[in-house]
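ok so for the tutorial part 2 we go from a plain amino acid sequence to predicted structure tokens. step 1 is just haveing the sequence, like this:
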Amino acid sequence: PMVFAHFIDTHRVYLFIALFDLVVGKKHALKLAKAFGQPESYYVPLGHYSSMLLIPFIRIKAVKFFEAQLKQKP
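step 2 — the prediction. this is what the tokens look like for a chain of 74 residues:
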């Protein structure tokens, strides 16, 4: 993702970053956010796998983000 991040429109990215992620790591997630140009992000106080407990909440946030994107004119 880091190689292609600069090709992505920052306004079309919404990141969920797990603060206690031991798989990807918070440090690497923040580097990716920086490479994307600091897109809108939501930080969850969980780990990589325990974040799955928030899937219903994450789904709502993601759908709202995509709905807002679809309403915007190109």
